[in-house]
Amino acid sequence: MCHDTNSRPPLPPISGGAASGESIVLKADDGNEFFAFSAKADKDDAPGMVILPDVRGCHSFYEDLALRFAEAGVHATAMDYFGRTAGVSRRADDFDFWPEVMKTNPDTIALDAAATIDHVKSLGAKSVFTVGFCFGGRNSFNQAARGHGLAGVIGFYGMVASRGEEDTDAPVDKAASYEAPVLGLFGGADAMITADGIEAFGKALDTAGVANELKIYDGAPHSFFDRSFDQFKEACDDAWKRMLAFIETNS
């Protein structure tokens, strides 16, 4: 599992007005309905963020994260992956996610991401970004190739290298089709994602002329931003600063 069940996101380094959020149901172009949680920033014309969760779907961790983005002045909506197979609901700690993860595919995730992007725009956002974590990190990167008109994509410890011959969705292989700047945030002690793989992803983005910033935090593990954030405060604070600067630069 990427996260402890009681994990909470680290606080952003800046704060605005208090934010409130709401549970909503969104509908993709193919008719699929899925759960999401949306939080609105103080200003209507604030930038927007679509949050692509880890394998657990729209867990309370991501509801909290949406609120923290809103408090930092960014409209944010966290989407769920499993409306097609597990119903329309938020995902509790005991949700059996792996069978549902195995039923997802990149095309339907992109359809649901598009519906979430449209919702964030309806809040007033003129520029919209995605951010994802682990499973969602890879999916967030690859939304840059889906024609969504994104202002940028952000991924935390998403697998960028190919997993093998049957893996047709590796970001390193999709980079030539990206249409938005990339911010990647990785743990240097992450056994699943190697420095060589990250370097190859950066080279592919450079070759494609895609603006990118790939940061590796020495000694930080996979999921440093959540379950270990109290131990890796420097990395978490820096990650927030980089995200907010990336949003400001590309909005």
Write the layout of secondary structure elements.
Layout: E1 21-27, E2 33-39, E3 48-52, H1 60-71, E4 75-79, H2 83-86, H3 97-101, H4 106-122, E5 128-133, H5 135-142, E6 152-156, H6 171-174, E7 182-187, H7 195-208, E8 212-217, H8 233-250
Parallel strand pairs: 3-4, 3-5, 5-6, 6-7, 7-8
Antiparallel strand pairs: 1-2, 2-4
What would you say about this model in short?
This protein is α/β, with parallel strands linked by helices. It contains 8 helices and 8 strands, in the order βββαβαααβαβαβαβα. Strands 1-2-4-3-5-6-7-8 form an 8-stranded mixed sheet, sandwiched between helices.
Plain-language structure description:
The protein has 251 residues and is α/β, with parallel strands linked by helices. It has a single domain (21-250), classed as Rossmann fold. It is 33% helix and 19% strand. It has helices spanning 60-71, 83-86, 97-101, 106-122, 135-142, 171-174, 195-208, 233-250; strands at residues 21-27, 33-39, 48-52, 75-79, 128-133, 152-156, 182-187, 212-217. The radius of gyration is 16 Å and the shape is globular. The mean pLDDT is 93.
